[in-house]
Every structure is written in structure tokens, then in C-alpha cells.
Design brief:
mainly beta; Jelly Rolls; five-stranded antiparallel beta sheet; 8 strands; Cupin domain-containing protein; RmlC-like_jellyroll; Cupin_2; RmlC_Cupin_sf
């Protein structure tokens, strides 16, 4: 069975799991200037796709600048902290590494 989610229907608190089970798929919505505190997802590989806006994603000592249409892949074992340079929406897929 296929599952379909319409992202505009997922407005709300800014973060939400789109599908149950693995891989975990999360919609992240941040207002300009908002930041998610540094955190880790041990044992996972993460793909971040920016749907709209622009993010600075701090990964340990490195910062990756992403804009709408960019995708980045990185280890969840690192400290991760996205910050929105403007109102932004991203999809994050977390899979066992």
C-alpha cells in the first residue's frame, strides 16, 4: 500500500513525522532566525532537502548553506543544528546507517 502526504496540510508546530515506521521522514518548518538546538541522531544517515527558503545547517564544526532545491546527506552521529535564514521548509529522511 502506498502512503501520500500533502505537505501544505501539515502546517502546525514546525516539526512533524510524515509517515510511521522506517525510514523516519520529518517535515521541518522554521521561521526566519529560528534554530533547532544542537542534537544527534546516532546510527542514522540523514538526507535534508530544502523545499522552500534557506537554511544554515551546522554539523559539528562545519556549516552547510542550503537553499530551496538543495539536498544534503550527512551522519546523524554529528551535532546537528539547522537555522533558518528566511522562512523555510525542509524534508528530512533519517535511515539506519
Amino acid at each position: 500500500m502506498s502512503e501520500v502526504v500533502h505537505l501544505p496540510d501539515r502546517e502546525g508546530d514546525g516539526r512533524g513525522v510524515l509517515f510511521g515506521g522506517a525510514p523516519k521522514t520529518v517535515r521541518l518548518s522554521l521561521d526566519a532566525g529560528d534554530r533547532v538546538p544542537p542534537h544527534q541522531h546516532p546510527g542514522t544517515e540523514i538526507v535534508c532537502y530544502v523545499v522552500d527558503g534557506a537554511l544554515d545547517v551546522t554539523l559539528g564544526d562545519e556549516t552547510v548553506d542550503l537553499v530551496a532545491g538543495d539536498a544534503a546527506r550527512f551522519s546523524g552521529d554529528r551535532d546537528i543544528s539547522p537555522r533558518a535564514r528566511e522562512d523555510s521548509v525542509a524534508l528530512l529522511v533519517l535511515a539506519e546507517g
